[in-house]
Amino acid sequence: MNDYVIKIPKNLARLGDLVLVPRKEYESYLEFKKFKEFKPALRQKNALKSAELNLKKGKTLSINELTRKLGVAY
Fold first, then answer.
1. 10-residue block means of pLDDT along the chain (74 residues)?
2. Quick one: which H or E segment has residue 70?
3. pTM for this one?
């Protein structure tokens, strides 16, 4: 079995936790980072606030109630 010694400079070690991962895993992480983060518009943020408020007030429908009101059969 090969034993390897890795010396980490003190100035690098002071930056915080270090993580060792295989190169392929690291590269797949870099590919994942290429996706843009979703940033909701003001209208979407307001719609979410409204939905959360309705949920708190109990103004919700079960999936069965929703399908019955929409006239959808599944």
1. 78 79 88 83 97 94 91 80
2. helix 63-70
3. 0.44
